[in-house]
Amino acid sequence: MSNKWWGQVAYQIYPKSFCDSNGDGIGDLQGIISKLDYLKDLGVKLVWLSPIFKSPFVDQGYDIADYQAIDPTFGTMEDFDELLAKAKERGISIILDLVINHCSSEHEWFKKACADLNSEEAKYFYIREGKNGCPPDNLRSYFGGSVWEKLPGHENEDLWYLHYFCKEQPDLNWYYEPLRQKLYEMINFWLEKGVAGFRIDAIMNIAKDLTFPGLPADAPDGMCSAAKMTAKLSDEAATFLHEMNNATFKKHGAISVAEAFGVNPESLSNYIGKDGFFSTIFDFSARELNEKYPACYRYRPVSIAKWRDTIFASQERVNDIGFMCPIIENHDEPRGVSYYLPRHAQNADGAKAFGAVNVLLRGMPFIYQGQEIGMTNTRFDSIYEFDDVAAKDNYKVALEAGLSERQALDILNIESRDNARTPVLWSDEKNAGFSSAQITWLKVHQDYKNLNVRAQQNDPDSTLAFYQKLIALKNNEPYHDILTDGKFVALEPQAEYVVPFARELNGKQIQVIANFEDSAIVHKVTPNAQVVLSSKSVEIKDNQIIIPAVCAVVIAL
Ligand code: TEU
Ligand code: CA
After folding, report:
1. In ligand 1, which atom is closest to the CA atom of 389?
2. Which of 12, 42, 466, 484 could form a disulfide with 7 if both were Cys (CB 3.0 to 4.6 A apart)?
3. 5-100+178-381+424-457 belongs to which CATH class?
C-alpha cells in the first residue's frame, strides 16, 4: 500500500464551528479531540486546522497576533499537544494554517513598528509616504476600501501602511530577508513539534511592486482590486517560495498545500512538480470562474456543466506535472451542493453524487467539515446574522451600487463565506449538539433537526455512509493504486448535467459517472464491467447501465 500523500483523503476543520467542549458557544481543541474517532471512522488521514493561534478574530483567526501561541478561545498548547498525539494514535496527521502574507495589527512586531519608525520591526512592513495626504496607490483591498491605512500614532503625518486584506492585517515585507528568517524559524518550530505540514494562506500576495504604481481602475470607485496586482506579479514570488521550501518543508519532509490563486499555467511545474515549491496546491479553477471583484453582487452562477469542463481541463493539465487538491467547498466559499448543483439536486442525492466526484478525481481531495453529511447553505434573515468582514463589505458595496437591502441579502445568502462557517450539525439536540451554550457565535443551520451526523451514523443509505464507502474505496485494495496513481481521463457527457470521468492505470479503468440531470441516462459498458459502488441501486443489463436522476456510479473495467 503506497504511503503517497495523494493516495489519502484530507479533511478541513474550521475550529470555531467544529465542536464546543466548554459551553462558550465557540468550537475549541478539546471539541476536536472529542471527535477524533468520528474522523477515524470517516477514513480521513490528514486534517487541516484553520488558524488556532492568538488572534483578535477580526478575520476569524487569519489575523495572527502570536504565531507560536494557541488562542485561549481554542485552549492551551497542552490541548494542542494532546490533539496531535491522539490524532497520531488514530493514524491522522495534522497540518496547520500558515498565514504569512500578513499578521495582525495586534502583533508585537506591528506595535513596535508604529512606536518607532527606526526600529527593526518597522522594516517588517510596507510603510510609505502618501501622495499629498492620499494613499500611495489606488489598489483596493480584498475586503473593500484602499489597501493603505494611516499609520497608527502618526495620523498627523502623511504616513501609510499596506494591507491587502482588512486594515487589522498589515502585510509583511517579504523583501526584507531578516523578516523571512523569522517566519522560517516559526515554521520549523511547529514542524519540530510534529505537525505534518501546512496549508499556506494567500501566499501569492507576498509579491509586490515596490514602486507601488497601482493599476487602472476596475470600478467607478477609482480603485483596482489587489488580486489583479497579485496576478500580474504571479512569477515574482518564486525566489521566496524556493527559499522557504529549502529552509523549512523540505528539511522535514513536510506536506505543504498552498492556497495559490492565479498561478501562471506555464509555471505550474515550479509549484507542484517533483521539486516544486509546494507538495501541492488547491484546484481553485472552478472558484476563479466567478470573478467576484470588485464586488460579490456581480457574481455569476456557475453550473455543474461549467464546473465539470473547468475542473476536467485542470485535471488534464496537471496529469503529467504533479497533483492538486480537488475541493467543492471550503471556509471561504458557500456550500458546493448549493452553489454548483441544479435545484433538483440540492439534497442528499446530489451531495452523494458530488462527493463521488470530489473524492475520486485525481489528487488529494479535501472534504470540508459538514460536506460529508450534505450540509447546504444556511439561511440568513438579516445582515446582522452575518459575521464575516467580507460579507459586511459586500453588503455595503451592493447597497452603494443601488441594490435594495433584500437584493443584497439574497446575494449574501448565495455567496457569503458565512455559509460554510455555521456550526457542524452533530445531532437534533440544542445547537445541533455543537454547543451547550445559550447562543452560538454564528447561527445554526435551519435543517439541523433532520440533517445531522447522529441521524446518519446508523443509516446505511445516508450521505455520511456513502462518503465512508467512497473514502474506503480509495484507502484500500484493490482500487487504492488506480485511485492514487491512475491517470485522469475525461469521458463524453451523455447530457449537460453529467460529470463522467475515468482513472486509468496499467490497462485497468475505474469510471465515475455522476448524473445531476432530473432524468435517467444510459451508460454503455464493456462485458467485463462491474459496479463497484453506486449512490442508488443500479444494474448492468445488455452491456449498459440505466443511471437514475441525481446518482453517481463507480464502475471497474
Ligand atoms: O483567503 C485568501 C483569498 O484571497 C480568498 O480567499 C479571498 O480573498 C477571500 O475569500 C475573500 O473573499 C485566505 C483565507 O482563506 C481567508 O479566509 C482569509 O480571509 C484571507 O486569506 C486573509 O488571510
Ligand atoms: Ca468553546
Report:
1. 19
2. 484
3. alpha beta
